[in-house]
Amino acid sequence: MSDAETVIAEAIEREWAIACGESLTGGLVCAQLASVPGCSAVLRGGIVAYQVEVKERALGVTPDVLAHGLVSEQVATALASGARAALGAEIGIGTTGAAGPDPHDGAAPGSAWIAVSLPGASRGPRNCRSTVTAGRSAPRWRQRPSPSPPGP
Prior knowledge:
- This protein has 152 residues and is α/β, with parallel strands linked by helices.
- The protein has one domain (3-141): Maf protein, CATH 3.90.950.20.
- It contains 6 helices and 4 strands.
- The relative contact order is 0.18.
């Protein structure tokens, strides 16, 4: 079972909707989830917020949060929480990073933050986060949906 299939299956079991707020991945996380049969039961959609203005207007990322840097834990968390709020979901996934080849807002190429916002946290969302260092295509190609197997 792929990671996307696992996420969709767990969300269906809990009857939790999923929303994505993506910068670095440009919609590929949502596309990966959408490639799973049955995802329409839980996948609300995604917002690609590549520009700062979109992060602010569509996902409610505040200037105080942006002051931490566009590639930061705080921004990833705000994208995840903002996607939950904007799309009415229980699960929010946020991605931000520097795809390269040049640094972005002080972050090294290949740096990435991923946050997952879930219900039930007593002090804001619970987050899973990670930083990676790789080339510009690495964060994107790893998110692409697997091709469908050839037919009979």
